[in-house]
Amino acid sequence: MGFPVPVGFKLAAVYCGLKTSGEDKLDLSLITCDRNATAAGVYTTNLVFAAPVGLDRARTPSDKIRAIVINSGNANACTGERGDQDAQRMAELAAASCGATADQALVLSTGIIGVFLPMEKVEAGVRDATPRLASDEASLVAAARGMLTTDSTHKLANKSLQVAGQTVQITGMAKGAAMIGPKMATMLGLILTDAAISPADAQRLLSFAVEDTFNCISVDGHMSTNDTVLLVASGAAGNKPLAGADLEAFGKALHQVCGDLAKAIPADGEGATHLVTIQVTGCASVDAARQIAKVVSESALVKTAIAGADPNWGRIVSAAGYANVPFDPAKVGLRVNGVTLYDRGAPVAFDRVAASKSIRENRDTSIELSFGEGEARARFWTTDLTAEYVRLNADYTT
Question: Could you tell me which residues are beta bridge partners of residue 383?
Answer without folding.
Answer: 275
